[in-house]
Amino acid sequence: MLKNQDSQDDYTFLSLLNEDPEAEPETQFIKNLRNELIMKANQKVRRIQWFSVTASIFLVTTVAVSLFLLINNSVVNELSTTHELITPNPAKDLSVIKPNEEDHVIEILEKEQINKLFTISYGEEPSDFGQPLIMPGGGDFTPLSFFVKNNLFYIIDNAEKKVVVTTETEHLISIPVHPDAQLKDLFVDEEGNIYVLDIAQRTVSKYNKSGNLLDDFHITDSSFIPTSLTVNQENEPIVFEGESKALNLVDGKEEKRKREFDGTLVNVNVSRNFDEAQINLDDQNGETKISIPFEHSYILLWVHDINPTQILFEKIEKNEKSQESESHMYVIDRSGSILGAVRIPDDHTEYYTEHRIRFENGQIYFMSAESDGVSIYSLTPGKIFEKKLYTVSNDNEQ
Description:
- The protein has a single domain (about 85-385), classed as TolB, C-terminal domain (Neuraminidase).
- About 10% of the residues lie in helices and about 40% in strands.
- The chain has 3 helices and 27 strands.
- The strands form 7 sheets. A 5-stranded antiparallel beta sheet has the order 1-19-18-17-16, with no helix packed on it. Strands 3-26-25-24 form a 4-stranded antiparallel beta sheet, with no helix packed on it.
- A hairpin with a 2-residue loop joins β16 (about 260) and β17.
- The protein starts with 7 loop residues before the first helix and ends in a 14-residue tail after the last strand.
- Residues about 1-100 and about 390-398 have low confidence and may be disordered.
């Protein structure tokens, strides 16, 4: 049973309505609804009653997408039942990889590999994590995000209000944050500086690699609801609201934008009946559209990385009959052919984690907040990978 998942899709669907100020329901209603959803996310509501929570999300997203489709007739057409590629301009030679991009190529094995690298236990030592705080209504304070840089792991501890920096075998430092912080995301730049998004204080705090505070960047726009964090090439912190809005905390400029990977813009659309999603890529060679079918019900498709030959994305779907869900990381080529995949091992995940997947130098990492501690896994895709949600001819689940 899936107990945690990214919430970017909720904000993406809702943001579509805001793009047309004359759309119904009114913009203020959408803002209020988005605020309510994000407040629930900030309270880290546990996913114990998975079916009821998923039903609520489906209700919101279904209404939003339906309204958007009525407003804009140019949105998603019916997609085919197989992978397909539409390339307006001639494709470049994708077999050529630049030397500085080789580290980002994902290795594909014959069989998937799932390895637990380490677990940090809950406890009272400086190197431990704070025990998740169960709150009235089932909420909890848990790690919401982690980051990997040069074989170092940076993990948020919302229970003890700190950021833990560790290797696979050794605790390095713990960086204390504001006692009333609600840490949402973090990022580490090439110099090892650590940026931490605190949505309670509406700040991004910058620390050096020794844990010393260098600067605070404030989110002064009260209408902007930060959901994630990155840093541009000038080391200026950028906070995002969903996928389509970004705010530079140095110059204060807000802009609507698509996600970008080394010059390739990407966004994801979903078919009317939620049985397929479409990855849209836009680069110097024109627009590319790749259809990804869902064998069961759509929950999420999220692109994590793009290189000249590969696309890495996360796909979460649910079997409507059994109400079971599962998540996989897929690697496809730019023609939409599956190169390999690996199951996300969330069987033992007990507490909600929003930013649970990171990709660094060709390696996929997964963070799981479990009953005894916080575990980090490495995931390597394979041509053979485990799938559980099969439907046989007699409609029984196996």
